[in-house]
Each structure stands twice: as structure tokens, then as C-alpha cells.
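can u do me a favor
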């Protein structure tokens, strides 16, 4: 516990709950796009049809029909898996927690992108992991660097977010994914592939998961319904090689027995009635529009010395400011002007960058995005 620190940023961001603050800070989906009516119908159907089962304890592996649905969905994403390979989890966040517990002893090394997802750092830090960043360029991890890191650090696994990465929005190209899978097979490296955003592509074409090339059974693939239905359902999954699956299952039993029986059934009825993919298309279109609005506003208003990523999907973009920029100090000023973002520093398990900002574009309307960028850019110009 002595290694864990409360986030100073969280404290500052408490003020962003006020409605007059335009927040690009949280990682929240657009609530007006939650399929409230359809989920409500699904919930009623679940309770009407054998409701007591939905309110009873259930199997730790997950609700059978939902595991079947996920196995079919995995095939659509380019991964061959059977329902027995699918462990339903309480959000994909639980996969990070369980994988951390399964693989890590104090001092063990995890290879990561640098920067990477904040709550993954927290999950692995709780297991007293050490983080070794893999060198990255503008399109993500550089696979050729990994064998030397394996030889030097003997990592327990590599954690990666290949699609619309949190926080940078960058997507790893197919040839690098294939190389990653090959390196994993050749060097006995386990890969934890975290894919919450892959379905949110609004430009370009889909790239298969790293797991698509995993002939050696070295890749754990995690995903979630949080971004394609709603995060409040707290329902995600992991597809894992059988021996790893069994360890994760034991850990899950100790952790929460099982993911909510009710939520899993609601998700399943929702997914198998109506047209859930048409709804995902709506989300994609809205986020694409919002990214476009944010990018255009940044181009119009930001001063020289700031550049940013152009993600083809997901919910975030990543701004690099001038070397001398202190994004945390900028946030304090920004909050006074009623606009918020997340300073990049906390996303670095390794060397901390002070001149980065993560901006979320999914959770604000186009009008508020324009106004928020206007406030933020004015502040950047003054400073
Ligand atoms: N991984 C990444 C990269 C995320 O950004 C998030 C949350 N937004 C999660 C995992 C966890 O999502 P959930 O638990 O809702 O599935």
C-alpha cells in the first residue's frame, strides 16, 4: 500500500462535475447514446422470463448463452475461440486485476506502452510490478525492440492497447501485430491485449487483433460491452489459453464469485434482440463527428508548438505541447476558465512527460467541444 498514491488530478477534476465546466477529462462515453429503451426492454424480458434465475448466484465462468455470443463475436473480429475459452468478467478492468494477480510477484516486470492506461498501471502496481516501457514511435510499439527487453528484464507479460490507445488514440498496424505475436511465440512472452475501443472505428478499416496471429497460445484478449452498450453494466470478458483461463477463474471466484447474473442476461437479451450493431454504428458516427469538430477547432485556435494525434476511432486524442509546458499547472488555470483535461504525466509508468494533455471528445456535444477548445486555446496562447 505504501507504493500507491492517490491521484492529485482526481482532486482537481472533482470540480469538473459542475455543469458549467466543459470537461475533456473523463473517459466517459456519450450518455445520450446509451440505448436506455432497449436495455429497459431487455431487463423487463429477463425478469419476466425466469426472473429468479437472473437474481440467483451463478457460474463464475459466466452466463452460457452470453459466452456463446461472445465466441461468435470473436470470430467476427478475426479470432477463433469457443465459449469455453471465454471468461465473463466484471468489466474488462477486472481482467487487468486478475491477470496482475495471476502473473505478478513483487518486483516482476511488465512491458508497456509509454504512456499507457492509468488504471492498468494502478492494477499492476498493486501487485508491486516494475514497469519497463517499450520504445514507441508515431504508430505504436516497435516490436524489434522487444527481444532485447525480454533478455534483459524477463517480463511476465506485455500489456498493450492496440486500437485507439488510451491515452494517445494511436492504432498499431497489422504488420506490427503479426510481429508481436511471432515474438511472443519465439520468446515465450505472454501478451495481454486490451481492446475496449476496437469497435469504435469511424475512419479507415479494421485491423485484426494481435490474438488473430496467436498460433502459440501466448495472447490473452480482453474486451468489454462498456463502449458498445454501456459501462454501468460492468460486463466484459477475456479469451485466454486454457491453463491461464483456469487460473483467472480461480482468482475471479475469490474476487467476486461471478459477474452480476442479471447484468449478463440483460446484455445477452439486448444483444440478441434488435440490431445492436446498428446502434454501434450510431456511436461511431457521433464520435467521428466529435473528433472532426475537436480537430478543426484545435487547428483554428491552438498556437504554434502544439501538435496532436488523429485517431481513427475511440474517444481520446493526445496533445504534445512545447517542452517547457507544465500541463498540471495549465489544468489549474483551465479549471478556473471552466474547461478541463487530463495532464499526461500520470499515464507514464516510466519517465514522466509534463508537456502532454489527453482530451476526450466522446462526452461533449459539438457545440461544447468548440467552446471548450476556444477556452483552452486562449489559455495556451496567453501562456
Ligand atoms: N482498458 C482500457 C484501455 C480502458 O480505457 C478502460 C476504461 N475506459 C478499461 C480497460 C476498463 O473498461 P471496463 O472495465 O468498463 O470494461
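np, heres the sequence
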Amino acid at each position: 500500500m505504501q507504493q500507491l498514491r492517490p491521484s492529485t488530478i482526481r482532486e482537481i477534476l472533482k470540480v469538473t462535475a459542475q455543469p458549467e465546466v466543459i470537461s475533456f477529462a473523463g473517459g466517459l462515453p456519450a450518455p445520450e447514446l446509451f440505448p436506455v429503451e432497449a436495455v429497459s426492454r431487455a431487463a423487463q424480458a429477463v425478469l419476466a422470463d425466469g426472473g429468479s434465475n437472473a437474481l440467483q448466484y451463478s457460474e463464475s465462468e459466466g452466463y452460457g448463452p452470453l459466452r456463446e455470443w461472445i465466441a461468435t463475436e470473436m470470430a467476427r473480429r478475426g479470432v477463433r475461440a469457443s465459449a469455453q475459452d471465454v471468461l465473463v468478467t466484471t468489466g474488462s478492468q477486472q481482467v487487468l486485476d486478475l491477470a496482475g494477480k495471476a502473473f505478478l510477484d513483487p518486483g516482476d516486470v511488465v512491458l508497456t506502452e509509454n504512456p499507457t492506461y492509468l488504471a492498468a498501471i494502478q492494477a499492476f502496481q498493486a501487485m508491486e510490478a516494475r514497469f519497463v516501457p517499450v520504445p514507441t514511435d508515431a504508430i505504436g510499439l516497435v516490436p524489434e525492440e522487444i527481444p532485447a527487453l525480454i533478455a534483459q528484464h524477463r517480463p511476465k507479460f506485455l500489456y498493450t492497447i492496440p486500437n485507439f490507445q488510451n491515452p494517445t488514440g494511436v492504432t498499431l498496424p497489422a504488420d506490427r501485430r503479426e510481429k508481436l505475436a511471432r515474438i511472443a511465440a519465439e520468446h515465450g512472452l505472454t501478451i495481454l491485449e486490451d481492446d475496449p475501443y476496437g469497435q469504435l472505428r469511424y475512419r479507415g478499416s479494421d485491423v485484426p487483433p494481435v490474438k488473430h496471429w496467436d498460433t502459440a497460445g501466448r495472447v490473452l484478449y480482453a474486451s468489454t460491452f462498456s463502449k458498445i452498450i454501456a459501462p454501468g453494466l460492468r460486463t466484459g470478458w477475456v479469451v485466454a489459453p486454457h491453463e491461464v483461463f483456469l487460473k483467472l477463474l480461480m482468482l475471479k471466484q475469490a474476487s467476486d464469485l461471478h459477474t452480476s447474473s442479471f447484468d449478463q442476461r440483460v446484455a445477452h437479451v439486448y444483444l440478441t434482440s434488435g440490431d445492436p450493431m446498428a446502434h454501434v454504428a450510431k456511436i461511431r458516427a457521433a464520435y467521428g463527428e466529435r473528433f472532426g469538430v475537436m480537430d478543426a477547432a484545435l487547428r483554428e485556435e491552438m498556437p504554434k508548438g502544439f501538435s496532436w494525434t488523429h485517431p481513427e476511432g475511440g474517444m481520446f486524442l493526445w496533445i504534445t505541447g512545447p517542452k517547457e509546458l507544465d500541463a498540471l499547472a495549465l489544468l489549474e488555470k483551465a479549471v478556473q476558465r471552466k474547461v478541463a483535461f487530463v495532464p499526461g504525466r500520470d499515464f507514464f509508468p516510466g519517465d514522466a512527460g509534463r508537456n502532454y494533455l489527453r482530451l476526450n471528445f466522446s462526452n461533449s456535444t459539438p457545440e461544447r467541444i468548440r467552446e471548450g477548445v476556444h477556452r483552452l486555446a486562449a489559455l495556451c496562447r496567453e501562456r
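The first strand starts at residue 22 and ends at 23. hope that helps!!
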